[in-house]
Amino acid sequence: MLAAPFRWMGGVSKRAITSLPWISGGTRQGSVSPQRALQLIPLYACVRILADSIASLPVQTYRKNGTSREILTFVPSLLFQPAARDNLFEWLHKCVVSMALRGNAYGLITQRDDFGFPTMIEWLNPDEMWVDELRPTQPRFYWQGVEVPREQIVHIPWVVMPGCVTGLSPVQYFARTIGVGLSATEYGLSWFDNGGTPPSTMKNTNKAINPDEAEEISDRLSARVRARKPLVYGSDWDFTALTVNPEESQFIQTMRLNASQIAAIYGVPPEKVGGDTGSSMTYSTVELNQIEFLTMTLRPWLTRLEAKLSALMPGKEFVKFNADAMLRVDLMTRYRAHQTALNDGWRNRDEIRALEDLPALPDGQGQVYLPVSMLGGPNDAPAPAPDDPNPIQ
Description:
Layout (H helix, E strand, L loop, with lengths): L33 H4 L3 H15 L3 E7 L2 E4 L5 H4 L7 H15 L1 E9 L5 E7 L4 E4 L7 E4 L2 E3 L4 E5 L12 H4 L1 H21 L4 E5 L6 H16 L10 E5 L4 H4 L2 H15 L19 H26 L5 E5 L9 H14 L4 H7 L38
Antiparallel strand pairs: 1-2, 1-11, 3-4, 3-8, 5-6, 6-7, 9-10
Helix pairs in contact: 2-4, 2-9, 6-9
């Protein structure tokens, strides 16, 4: 199944001269790699929050029908089994991680249906990709040094400069900011591992100690500490264990500032990744915080993915994420919202039952868009016409 799409890769390897040396777009020496950047907790948290939130949203497929749209009851192959080893959650998760770390997601189309529409796409390592942007309207894609036909690549960039094709890599462009956080973390660890200050001091009040004697005493003291044995010394010695202020040893203020900067890069609320909210507006309810996160952070990501996935769908079909799934409200509030939708006639009973994971009503009873006051139950008499002189009692 997967061998056919790779047939075009046989024969002589083709590489653009501008891609020399042929390193497939890997990271420059001395730069911060995505793997090392993920060791920084705030950056890992930002990527995880974005990928988990987006990949866990339900995906619904629609078909345009004139000025209206209809929900498709079947799941397209691309959204059912998008890759050989990935389900939809894992597939979307990889895509978002690639965009968040490298600014681009590159997918190789490995299977198509009888009409030529993609049914399987494998996400490639962006460090193995290189794009010839000399002609932005007709870019040339190279994977592991081999040119790939443009129609075989699905490319989703994040932030793109005008006149360019590839998105800006956050890890590359903000390497200095990320490096500050990594350096602060490593320095805080080395403070304890290597001893930023001596762990203790011993002072003899009655005798002057020369350097050789001081070194021997220090070695004996260290040996007893490592052996976890009691330390016995005479009355003329003062032993003082030194403590380090946590604000100094772990550089909390530096780490908070760095976390806030990384959160700003990804548009994630800083309090979610260990940053400082400062004077930013926060809401008192979980629902309002979720609405802000959905509107300010996730909506641009969802729009990019919806546009690209919709372009891969046949005919007039398109894809939408059900962002309402993130807004979990209490039971009574949800039921009141359903009642309002029925009363105003902008949702029918089957649509509301679908939101509650209930099956549709039989015989199409729940597909009518009318105010609920006009919808009688199965045992109710029909409502009288406005001009009926003898209404049914």
